Automatic annotation (TrEMBL):
<dbReference type="Pfam" id="PF00430">
    <property type="entry name" value="ATP-synt_B"/>
</dbReference>
<dbReference type="GO" id="GO:0045259">
    <property type="term" value="C:proton-transporting ATP synthase complex"/>
</dbReference>
<keyword id="KW-0138">CF(0)</keyword>
<comment type="similarity">
    <text>Belongs to the ATPase B chain family.</text>
</comment>
<dbReference type="GO" id="GO:0005886">
    <property type="term" value="C:plasma membrane"/>
</dbReference>
<keyword id="KW-1133">Transmembrane helix</keyword>
<keyword id="KW-0066">ATP synthesis</keyword>
<keyword id="KW-1003">Cell membrane</keyword>
<keyword id="KW-0375">Hydrogen ion transport</keyword>
<keyword id="KW-0472">Membrane</keyword>
<keyword id="KW-0175">Coiled coil</keyword>
<keyword id="KW-0406">Ion transport</keyword>
<comment type="function">
    <text>F(1)F(0) ATP synthase produces ATP from ADP in the presence of a proton or sodium gradient. F-type ATPases consist of two structural domains, F(1) containing the extramembraneous catalytic core and F(0) containing the membrane proton channel, linked together by a central stalk and a peripheral stalk. During catalysis, ATP synthesis in the catalytic domain of F(1) is coupled via a rotary mechanism of the central stalk subunits to proton translocation.</text>
</comment>
<keyword id="KW-0812">Transmembrane</keyword>
<dbReference type="GO" id="GO:0046933">
    <property type="term" value="F:proton-transporting ATP synthase activity, rotational mechanism"/>
</dbReference>
<comment type="function">
    <text>Component of the F(0) channel, it forms part of the peripheral stalk, linking F(1) to F(0). The b'-subunit is a diverged and duplicated form of b found in plants and photosynthetic bacteria.</text>
</comment>
<dbReference type="InterPro" id="IPR050059">
    <property type="entry name" value="ATP_synthase_B_chain"/>
</dbReference>
Amino acid sequence: MEKLINDFSFGLFIWQTIIFVGLVLLLKKFAWKPILDAVNEREEGIKNALLSADNARKEMQNLQSDNQRILQEARMERDALLKDAREMKEKMVADAKTEAQAQGLIMIEQAKAAIESEKNAAMAELRAQVSNLSIEIAEKLLKDELSNKEAQVKLVEKMLGDAKLN
């Protein structure tokens, strides 16, 4: 250290100080301002990027909440549509059952009426056949009985006796 103190030159010190001050002034004028401006711009850019990121995050949260709300509304609307569709289906099935029952009752009534008319027609036809057979049998019996005179007289007397009683 003594050697450094012994080798000290006052003139060299002043020249170095002048050069240092000049260098600082030159740097201040030409380098520091652009460097500080660049650092400030970079700082502003980082601040703006952070603000943009924060705004984007907030916007994403808003979009997510909107998406959740829209999704919830869509689910509710879907559920309402499904409920309406189920109700409509049940109503249509009930209406179809009611109509089928009504048609069935109408068909049963028509069948009963058809059976009754067929029955009446069959009964009328049976009566006609029975009456025709009765008349044929009566004719044959009368022919046999009325073939002799004595049987004719008995039959007339019997009919007269029956007529008085009625």
